[in-house]
């Protein structure tokens, strides 16, 4: 699935990063998009005379009118509602016969399950380009598409707007069966409230990433509204194009958009292929196959009939999977797992100003997050630690250290400053230990945590979010424990080594005396 780093009109803040189980009884519909009036927007290519017959808003309550004739975007993913309509439409629209079918599954609620024996190395899917939603797709409201393109709107916000526009056309959009089978409320941290993020992710740096993302989505929507929607209200009425509908469409993009390497990294929604769930045990990914002219993936393991077929959403940490897809893999199963460690310059440092200036020059700030993996940490983190602990007489090296701490600096040598190596390692260890104690406090407190619910309906949701947070924090703390162990051992070896050297030196001194 696509990486979300480059979606925004407003550039996202710099991220310094490399790269469960589902609960089917969980009620997802706490803030459900509902269309109160059920008449679709009419196709009308002359925008001057376009009559908007739909009034769309997102509510948390259901009116009598909606109860009578409920129409909403998407469906509940814990049911197979709309799945057969999707499969029927896909095969009529040109999807060749498949070796998999859409079923209820244990991992991921709905997923694709093998109908026949599938060999390792087989190509599956073959979704033709005509069934792919990309920035070039035709709009049911061509004028709306023209306006966005004329204004140079990038792919992600363009696709988010496209999805809302097509959803509002309901049955008269060619994507109606696809949109009806999309989740009504995508699982992603976009749907956690600020107080849920603060409460459940208090120990994890993912909380900040989620807040940044929520703000980026809001900023992107506001930017579109100011620059474009407010100038063409007949094409982009606020009842349809609003913050809630954008949250939904971005939630869909974060969890389903695919980057296709063979199409110059173009991003696309690929109906059917986006029903495949992620496994950390496979490495295969979706791509365009020039010879068969379709979106395919090549299996990297065999499957028997009845087994769920998986792809990889990329080498992502558990936190990143929670952020975009709303799930956390079982502890210890994700080889790409990492935790972000936050390092900060000490405000009382005599060279605080010079150091922060050097960092700023290289796009870094006085407080910076770095990924730790079970196998180690990046050179950038070590460089930042050297800078943080270096004394004033090393000011000539500040610039070099800051450059090495930036991921933007490509040529990197494994620089070492032996004279401050011990302090740098101790500095990282201290940060690890602060972080570990925050995780431990959260995990211990989570057992007796007040769920803060006002209605019984909310209990399932809160329990589900809490479990996701506990799973994430357990896996992140595990990596920190490993780093703590390695750092302590290194420091101990250094100190005993120094002690030995000192004893020998003293021996020499005595000898000369
Ligand atoms: C591309 S969609 C896959 C199809 C999805 N299961 C559905 O029913 O629409 C991605 C979503 O599937 C679910 N998912 C994918 N892999 C999962 C996994 N290993 N464990 C739990 N949920 C998973 C998450 O809800 C994620 O947001």
From TrEMBL:
<dbReference type="GO" id="GO:0016279">
    <property type="term" value="F:protein-lysine N-methyltransferase activity"/>
</dbReference>
<keyword id="KW-0808">Transferase</keyword>
<dbReference type="InterPro" id="IPR044431">
    <property type="entry name" value="SET_RBCMT"/>
</dbReference>
<dbReference type="GO" id="GO:0030785">
    <property type="term" value="F:[ribulose-bisphosphate carboxylase]-lysine N-methyltransferase activity"/>
</dbReference>
<feature type="binding site">
    <location>
        <position position="288"/>
    </location>
    <ligand>
        <name>substrate</name>
    </ligand>
</feature>
<feature type="binding site">
    <location>
        <position position="256"/>
    </location>
    <ligand>
        <name>S-adenosyl-L-methionine</name>
    </ligand>
</feature>
<dbReference type="InterPro" id="IPR050600">
    <property type="entry name" value="SETD3_SETD6_MTase"/>
</dbReference>
<feature type="binding site">
    <location>
        <begin position="277"/>
        <end position="278"/>
    </location>
    <ligand>
        <name>S-adenosyl-L-methionine</name>
    </ligand>
</feature>
<keyword id="KW-0949">S-adenosyl-L-methionine</keyword>
<dbReference type="InterPro" id="IPR011192">
    <property type="entry name" value="Rubisco_LSMT_MeTrfase_plant"/>
</dbReference>
<keyword id="KW-0489">Methyltransferase</keyword>
<protein>
    <recommendedName>
        <fullName>SET domain-containing protein</fullName>
    </recommendedName>
</protein>
<dbReference type="InterPro" id="IPR046341">
    <property type="entry name" value="SET_dom_sf"/>
</dbReference>
<dbReference type="InterPro" id="IPR001214">
    <property type="entry name" value="SET_dom"/>
</dbReference>
<feature type="domain" description="SET">
    <location>
        <begin position="98"/>
        <end position="314"/>
    </location>
</feature>
<feature type="binding site">
    <location>
        <position position="256"/>
    </location>
    <ligand>
        <name>substrate</name>
    </ligand>
</feature>
<dbReference type="GO" id="GO:0009507">
    <property type="term" value="C:chloroplast"/>
</dbReference>
<feature type="binding site">
    <location>
        <position position="274"/>
    </location>
    <ligand>
        <name>substrate</name>
    </ligand>
</feature>
<feature type="binding site">
    <location>
        <position position="313"/>
    </location>
    <ligand>
        <name>substrate</name>
    </ligand>
</feature>
<dbReference type="Pfam" id="PF00856">
    <property type="entry name" value="SET"/>
</dbReference>
<dbReference type="GO" id="GO:0032259">
    <property type="term" value="P:methylation"/>
</dbReference>
<dbReference type="InterPro" id="IPR015353">
    <property type="entry name" value="Rubisco_LSMT_subst-bd"/>
</dbReference>
<dbReference type="Pfam" id="PF09273">
    <property type="entry name" value="Rubis-subs-bind"/>
</dbReference>
<feature type="binding site">
    <location>
        <position position="325"/>
    </location>
    <ligand>
        <name>substrate</name>
    </ligand>
</feature>
<dbReference type="InterPro" id="IPR036464">
    <property type="entry name" value="Rubisco_LSMT_subst-bd_sf"/>
</dbReference>
